[in-house]
Amino acid sequence: MGIERHLNDTVHVTNLEWFVNWARKSSMWPLGFGLACCALEMIATFVSRYDLSRFGMEVARPSPRHADLMIVSGTASKKMLPAILRIYEQMAEPRWVIAMGACACTGGIYKNYAVVQGIDRWLPVDVYIPGCPPRPEALLDGILQLHAKVMKEQSIHNPRVTNIKVAGR
Ligand code: SF4
User: Fold this and answer.
1) Which residue among 35, 77, 103 is best mutated to probe the pocket of ligand 1, counting the most ligand atoms within 8 A of its Cβ?
2) Which of 6, 13, 38, 81 is 20 to 30 A from 169 in CA distance terms?
3) Does the predicted model carry a pTM greater than 0.85?
4) Residue 37: half-sphere exposure toward Cβ, Cα within 13 Å
């Protein structure tokens, strides 16, 4: 990049797609929304010890219209599912989903008719975090994995499609 050398590092040249991805991953806003025991670990991740401020996302948004990251933390019951899907649909585009914990990823120990056997049957999950429950460090790692994924997205030429899936596959 010859021009940067001549301008003494006062100007940085990049492409628009990289810049859009960087802006998105640097200003991701999570929705404050927990379903079961995993939610307590998610809440613990927001305390000062883990310093989510580093990623510009220390405040959980109370409204889906202000949020673009849904962390499904805990057991998703079928009774709760319509509310989860409605909140997801009300979130801003582009939006991302983290499935936190064994229950959100697969139904966990609840192999019964009342529990969703993996929220990815309904929502386009970007990152899965295993564990029962995962510790805050695991959620932090999941967030970093999501940031890395966002940086590889083709945000301009091939924008994300994040509709609710057809269930029961
Ligand atoms: S994965 Fe474990 S800790 Fe998390 S909601 Fe399920 S039972 Fe609770």
Assistant:
1) 103
2) 38
3) yes
4) 10
